[in-house]
Amino acid sequence: MKSPRRHSRSRSPYRRQTQTSPSRSPSRRSPRRRSPSRSPSRRSPRRRSHSRSPRWRSRSRSPIRVRSRSRSPISHSRRERERIDKRTRVRPINQSRSPKKEEIGNDGPKPNFGLSGKLAAETNSYNGVVLKYFEPPEARKPIKKWRLYVFKGDKEMDILHIHRQSAYLFGRERKVADIPIDHPSCSSQHAVLQFRQVTSTNDETGEKISEIKPYIIDLDSTNKTFVNNNVIPPSRYYELKASDTIKFGFSTRDYVLIHDELDDEKLE
């Protein structure tokens, strides 16, 4: 009967072992308890990684800063080129001196497309000399063969045929004068003999008749122009007729105007 009890006692150590097993539990639980201790070790690299991350980023950005420095001389060179281009550019004189555009309303002056000033002078020049006169639109070559007989006192000096052109300039400037006048009292551009086409109406029939007639105009000369010993007004056309005598300034030469039909009438 005692054997079963012994067996029970023999089992007791097992039970003790089982009871002692809870003593081991702390060893088994130690890793669980240590886990919080390890957690900082595990988190430490993360913290370090977070702490290092800005360093790594700053290092990664450093080459960008270097590139930006490398680009700076290029930008400076472009600015210098732009400055040099601005300095080397030549501005046209007309743009630099041109006045500001005036705003013209509906009631403002109408545009004038005619030439004026130096531009008109350049277009109305000949042999480098600016002309005081330009022909009107009604200028025509004469049909009749007009001539000028030049006299000095009672002596005939020359005969000038003036039917080949529509206008003849008298003056001392030989570069532009068609008929030069060498007397010192005459101006460089003294007067112009101009042939013009003029329309007139016949009083009896009412018909319009167009004729080419000779006119003379004084170009504001100093000592005037004379027709039949009478001073003509300056800058105005004065009609000439056959057998009129023209004088310029204080010159002693007379210019008598005649055409062929007048000679034929005299012969008849």
Automatic annotation (TrEMBL):
<feature type="region of interest" description="Disordered">
    <location>
        <begin position="1"/>
        <end position="118"/>
    </location>
</feature>
<protein>
    <submittedName>
        <fullName>SMAD/FHA domain-containing protein</fullName>
    </submittedName>
</protein>
<dbReference type="Pfam" id="PF00498">
    <property type="entry name" value="FHA"/>
</dbReference>
<dbReference type="InterPro" id="IPR000253">
    <property type="entry name" value="FHA_dom"/>
</dbReference>
<feature type="domain" description="FHA">
    <location>
        <begin position="168"/>
        <end position="232"/>
    </location>
</feature>
<feature type="compositionally biased region" description="Basic residues">
    <location>
        <begin position="1"/>
        <end position="14"/>
    </location>
</feature>
<feature type="compositionally biased region" description="Basic residues">
    <location>
        <begin position="26"/>
        <end position="70"/>
    </location>
</feature>
<dbReference type="InterPro" id="IPR050923">
    <property type="entry name" value="Cell_Proc_Reg/RNA_Proc"/>
</dbReference>
<feature type="compositionally biased region" description="Basic and acidic residues">
    <location>
        <begin position="77"/>
        <end position="87"/>
    </location>
</feature>
<dbReference type="InterPro" id="IPR008984">
    <property type="entry name" value="SMAD_FHA_dom_sf"/>
</dbReference>
